[in-house]
Task: inverse folding
């Protein structure tokens, strides 16, 4: 069993990317509805303030370190993680694996037509890929039973939920018992990238752990969101000091 690292109460799986993918494949062979979440510093900070959200993250079969800030926080706590495991990269590999094995995927989330555009682009790239269905992310609570029925009737093996955190994680967890999929992932803006609506950072930025900086350069108005990273690191350091003080009392 792999270890977990607790960062502000959120339990992150201490696994490499390859180990995470191998575990993901094994979950696809069970009869459970397993959940995979990919918290970054902003999500962990939200969970730090929202006990319900934190508990939901901690019920996931896999919780990855999506963001170099999460890896840095683990180092500060002297509980290092092997590497960053980005949700988009994991989703990309699941898509490739599904195209090779006949597993099917349902896309749920993003603005109208985005999921359909993602389906079109991905099936052009992977002609054998089975996208069982799509549904945009604009809905009310009254629409949820119909959405669940659509997903179940599609007989999808995997469900990508791209509603943004914490909405996507709460939706998956609250409806887990009604879903017939094998695996449900919360993937934020992944469908926008797959659809070509937004572009991911070039490889050099990703390899240097500067993907966040690329997004800031492309959209300076996001500066407020990126200030969450230094606040996150400060909060982790304070938590470490508080825990140390409690131990020495």
Result:
């Amino acid at each position: 069993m792999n270890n977990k690292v607790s960062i502000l109460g959120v339990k992150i799986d201490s696994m490499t990317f390859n180990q995470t993918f191998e575990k993901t494949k094994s979950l696809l062979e069970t009869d459970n509805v397993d959940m995979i979440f990919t918290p970054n510093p902003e999500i962990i900070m939200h969970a730090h303030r929202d006990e319900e959200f934190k508990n939901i993250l901690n019920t996931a079969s896999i919780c990855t370190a999506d963001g170099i800030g999460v890896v840095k926080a683990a180092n500060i706590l002297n509980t290092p993680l092997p590497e960053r495991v980005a949700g988009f990269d994991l989703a990309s590999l699941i898509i490739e694996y599904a195209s090779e094995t006949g597993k099917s995927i349902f896309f749920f989330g993003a603005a109208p037509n985005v999921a359909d555009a993602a389906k079109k682009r991905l099936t052009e790239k992977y002609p054998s890929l089975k996208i069982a269905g799509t549904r945009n992310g604009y809905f009310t609570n009254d629409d949820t039973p119909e959405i669940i029925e659509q997903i179940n009737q599609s007989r999808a093996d995997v469900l990508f939920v791209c509603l943004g955190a914490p909405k996507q994680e709460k939706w998956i967890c609250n409806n887990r018992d009604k879903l017939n999929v094998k695996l449900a992932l919360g993937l934020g803006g992944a469908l926008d990238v797959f659809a070509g609506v937004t572009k991911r950072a070039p490889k050099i930025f990703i390899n240097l752990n500067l993907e966040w900086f690329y997004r800031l350069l492309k959209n300076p108005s996001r500066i407020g969101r990126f200030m969450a990273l230094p606040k996150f690191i400060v909060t982790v350091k304070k938590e470490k000091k508080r825990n140390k003080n409690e131990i020495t009392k």
User: Anything to note?
Assistant: The mean pLDDT is 92. The two ends are 33 Å apart (CA to CA).
